Every structure is written in structure tokens, then in C-alpha cells.
């Protein structure tokens, strides 16, 4: 279905000059949207103009604390002449809001998942490409310093397997999605990023033990570069745990994404002994790094670290893991670049 921008909001795309702050707003001021607004209010090179939410009391509370305006919805945001908008509204609203923002000539960062369906995600990507604006998807885990340390440790290695655990208690408020879309989509993105290849085979096991939607998921994958991957995620664990284990031909890397400790086991010997070292992990707030990357892309026109196309690809794999879903369509064979990355 065609979607048109609110009357009077469409304008030509003009990127902000280097000496001008990026005028930005946030729509959807729940927990994640409030964090986006907080970080943006502190970033040099950004001007947090306003926050928008139907809950005017919440929007005004955040606006008063951060020293910006509060408005009722994204259309009111667009009337303020912004360069960019962060969409942190509920997932089912991502598609109509993002299309309005893009049609108005604004760049947009859409929280993950990019949309409720693959088709809606592709429409957002196509609209941004046609309008010439920046589209980024908020897979913030890529900017976790421990994740980046793991990525650096396995660079040029011959990868064999990846195992990711992301578990914890039920969220304080239940959304209209289960653990696959809420949590596992992070790790699907990481698997594709770590391997530099797409996911070819999916073997999901899910269960709704307590909730209406799946609250347990054990997901197995094979990538086009031959790497085997496994995701264990649930809302039934009384504590949070976020770990990544990567096996290569020459080393075994373990990352704790909460404590941000990364350990590398290497130098395997015939007697079964090996060496271990703790890798340096930078101190940085992932959300700040993500937003800095987005602002840089808005200014320069370069692709952001997590593109709309990547967000849609990870969403497609995640949806294929849901009960009754058709398998995701992956590339029929690996590319030469993927073979080089796999073999090191």
C-alpha cells in the first residue's frame, strides 16, 4: 500500500554542513527512546530539538530534563525542520513513521527490528534510497566494545563455529513479539557480521512455556561460508547472561558482553595444553558509538555501519525461525570474498 507523507512536510534533502549541528528528534520515548534522547543531548555535533510521544506527560518529563521541546507525534517533529529522526516507537509503527520521515527528506535511524515484516522493511529501504537519505538500523550490540574486541580477535581467522547465549527474565513490559524478534535478531546480525556471509540453513526450535509468544528459542544455522552457529535465548532465566563463543582453527575466543571481558585461548599443543590471554576492551557506551556513527553518515552521506539492507536481512532470518514461517531465502552459493573470509 502506498504511503504518503503528511501534507507540508516534504522537502528537498540537504545535508548539514560540517560547522552546523545535526538537528535531530526522537519519536517514541519509552526506555530505549529516552536513552537515545539522553545520549543525543550530550553529543557534540548534534542538536536535540524535540522528543515526541503520544504520552505527553512522559514526553514533557524527558524534554524538561534534557532541555528540548516535547511534541505529540512524529509529524509535529517534522514541522520543526529536522535533519534526522530516531524512530524508537513500537515495532508495528516503524513502517509508517519511517516512510513519513524519509518523505520529508530526513535521515532516519530505526530501532531494531527495522519493521514488522520483510516487505515493510524493503519498502523503507527503497524509499530511503530513492530519496537519497541515510537509513540506519539500531543493532546496537555491534557497538558493544566486547563484541568489537571479539570481531578483531577473529579477523583473518578460519572460523568454525559460533555459539551465542542471550537469556534473562521476562521484560518489565511485554511487547507484541517473542524472544526471536526481541533478542535473537541481535545475534543473527552478529553471526552475519562475524562471518561476513549470509545464513544459508536455519534449524529453529522454539516454545511458548509461559507467554503467548515464544519465550524459549534454540536456533541453529549454517552460513554460506560453512560456519555453524547456535543461539540460545529465553525469558526464563532469573539473571541476565550475554556470551559469545567463537571457535577457529587456531584459537577459541570467549566474550562476556555484560562484564565486557574477552578471553582468547590459543597455541594448542600436542599434550593438550594451550595459552590464554585476556584481550583489551575499550570503554565506550554502545549507544553513544552507534549514534556517533549515524550522525557521521548523515553528514557525509557514507553508508552507516548497519544499513537498512542488513537490518532487513537479519529480520528475514529471524522471521523464518518463527513457528509456521517459510525458510528464508539465502544466496545459493558462497562468493569468492566469503570463501577468503572463511579460510583466512
Automatic annotation (TrEMBL):
InterPro entries: Gfo/Idh/MocA-like_OxRdtase_N, Gfo/Idh/MocA_Oxidoreductases, GFO_IDH_MocA-like_dom, NAD(P)-bd_dom_sf. One of its GO terms (molecular function) is nucleotide binding. Signal peptide: none annotated. Residues 177-246 form the GFO/IDH/MocA-like oxidoreductase domain. This is Oxidoreductase domain protein. Pfam families: GFO_IDH_MocA, GFO_IDH_MocA_C3. Residues 325-335 have a biased composition (Low complexity). Residues 325-344 are annotated as: Disordered. Residues 22-139 form the Gfo/Idh/MocA-like oxidoreductase N-terminal domain.
Amino acid at each position: 500500500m502506498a504511503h504518503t507523507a503528511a501534507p507540508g512536510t516534504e522537502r528537498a534533502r540537504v545535508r548539514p554542513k560540517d560547522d552546523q549541528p545535526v538537528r535531530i528528534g526522537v519519536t517514541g520515548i519509552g526506555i530505549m527512546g529516552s536513552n537515545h534522547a539522553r545520549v543525543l543531548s550530550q553529543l557534540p555535533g548534534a542538536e536535540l530539538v524535540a522528543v515526541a510521544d503520544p504520552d505527553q506527560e512522559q514526553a514533557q518529563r524527558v524534554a524538561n530534563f534534557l532541555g528540548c521541546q516535547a511534541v505529540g507525534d512524529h509529524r509535529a517533529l517534522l514541522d520543526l525542520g529536522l535533519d534526522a529522526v530516531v524512530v524508537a516507537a513500537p515495532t508495528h509503527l516503524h513502517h509508517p513513521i519511517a516512510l513519513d520521515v524519509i518523505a520529508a527528506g530526513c535521515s532516519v535511524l530505526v530501532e531494531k527490528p527495522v519493521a514488522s515484516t520483510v516487505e515493510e522493511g524493503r519498502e523503507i529501504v527503497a524509499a530511503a534510497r530513492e530519496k537519497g537519505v541515510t537509513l540506519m538500523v539500531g543493532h546496537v550490540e555491534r557497538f558493544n566494545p566486547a563484541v568489537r574486541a571479539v570481531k578483531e580477535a577473529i579477523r583473518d581467522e578460519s572460523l568454525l563455529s559460533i555459539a551465542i547465549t542471550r537469556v534473562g527474565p521476562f521484560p518489565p513490559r511485554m511487547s507484541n513479539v517473542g524472544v526471536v524478534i526481541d533478542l535473537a535478531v541481535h545475534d543473527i546480525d552478529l553471526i552475519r557480521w562475524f562471518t561476513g556471509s549470509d545464513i544459508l540453513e536455519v534449524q529453529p526450535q522454539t516454545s511458548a512455556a509461559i507467554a503467548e509468544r515464544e519465550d524459549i528459542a534454540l536456533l541453529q544455522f549454517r552460513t554460506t561460508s560453512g560456519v555453524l552457529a547456535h543461539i540460545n535465548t529465553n525469558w526464563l532465566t532469573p539473571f541476565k547472561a550475554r556470551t559469545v563463543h567463537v571457535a577457529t582453527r587456531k584459537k577459541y575466543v570467549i566474550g562476556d558482553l555484560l562484564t565486557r571481558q574477552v578471553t582468547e585461548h590459543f597455541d594448542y599443543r600436542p599434550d593438550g595444553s594451550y595459552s590464554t590471554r585476556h584481550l583489551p576492551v575499550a570503554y565506550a557506551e554502545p549507544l553513544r558509538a552507534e549514534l556517533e556513527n549515524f550522525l557521521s553518515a548523515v553528514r557525509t552521506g557514507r553508508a552507516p555501519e548497519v544499513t537498512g539492507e542488513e537490518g532487513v536481512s537479519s529480520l528475514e532470518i529471524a522471521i523464518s525461525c518463527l513457528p509456521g514461517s517459510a525458510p528464508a531465502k539465502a544466496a545459493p552459493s558462497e562468493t569468492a570474498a566469503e570463501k577468503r573470509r572463511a579460510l583466512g
